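Q&A log
Question type: sequence-to-structure
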Amino acid sequence: MKIDKNKPLPEHTKLDYDECCALLILTELFPERYSDLKLADKPDLQGDEIGVEVTIAVDRKQQEALNNWVKAYNCDDENKKQRYVERMSQLGVKYTGGIQSWPGRVPSFETIQEAVDSKVKKLQKGNYGAFKEYELFILTDTWMTEDIIQESKDYFTQNNIFALFNKVYILEKGCVLYMFNADGCNYIKINVTEQSDRNVRARKMVELAEEQ
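Response status: OK
Response body:
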């Protein structure tokens, strides 16, 4: 599939863009731990001893509205564009063009919990590779307030999440990485620098895979 470099990525590609972002972040922030990490399947990222599952935690209606805005803004067919705009309206968002206005949202732990629960169920069903350690990497559009950080810590410990995932990473809006550990559920907060450059390189990985 030929990808137009001036337009958003198609919905279905050989490589997953979010998984590429997660791979670049982990290998560049923690080169000693993830030096051999590669893109794969079940789990999404694999090293010799570590397997990492990657997922997103987003408001589904907000995400659908965003996807329709991207399509509308980049669409030359007026009939198709109108359908995207109408769908945004049905989702409670008025299309305002290139400078899009979005309704305010109250940060919630709900989408993160749903993402974790979904991956736990899939891993428990089996058909995944055997690794000494499993980890979970979550990309979210949720602001990680102090309350949500505490909810995360409580949920991970009270529901034995660390029995399956030795570490849980949460990437907040592509800018801040939270690493939750099984040891007492402590967490580390890391400001992710050069993320724009990583995003460009992640997209390039997707584009190159489509050309092969």
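Response note: The longest strand covers residues 50-57.
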